[in-house]
Design brief:
mainly beta, 12 strands, globular, 163 residues, oxidoreductase
């Protein structure tokens, strides 16, 4: 499957607050992960699918939190893809600290600045598939914040640019 080129996206969600009834309790943390197994499923209704490693932090979060977002990364955002795909990485809070992002109005999830497209989604369906979970989301909002550059792709185990 390494011979199949794919686009690269940043999937994000916001953890719910630890204690929503306590205004002094810390708010939920932003969580992000790089994904290359992402696709459009349907135009009517607008549905997308992302494949998450079962038991990963994002899989566990999206099992509880139905709202999430996707930023389609541009070729100039390779550093973001690498940062959010590291194993044994530092906290996600620090990973978001120095990248530009806006908070989605429908989901509260971070949307990467400079992305070719951003989507906000609500989970419609979760399906186990081997060592992964397929998450189908209904697109709540879609925007095209940047028209600059081409897409970031993943091919033969490396991030690449078209052209």
């Amino acid at each position: 499957m390494s011979r199949l080129a794919s686009g690269v996206v940043l999937v994000t969600a916001q953890e719910p607050p630890l204690d929503p009834d306590d205004p002094q309790a810390p708010g939920g943390e932003d969580v992000g992960m790089t994904a290359t197994a992402f696709m459009s499923v349907s135009l009517d209704p607008p549905l997308v699918l992302v494949s998450l490693r079962t038991g990963s932090r994002m899989d566990d979060l999206l099992d509880e939190q139905p709202l999430w977002a996707v930023s389609v990364l541009s070729e100039s955002q390779r550093h973001i893809a690498g940062r959010f795909s590291m194993k044994g990485r530092i906290s996600d809070r620090l990973l978001f600290a120095d990248i530009p992002y806006a908070r989605g109005g429908a989901t509260g999830a971070p949307l990467a600045g400079g992305a070719l497209a951003t989507l906000e989604c609500r989970t419609e369906q979760r399906m186990p598939a081997g060592d992964h979970t397929l998450v189908v989301g209904r697109v709540l909002t879609a925007s095209l914040p940047s028209a600059d550059g081409g897409p970031l792709t993943y091919f033969r185990g490396r991030y690449r640019q078209l052209g």
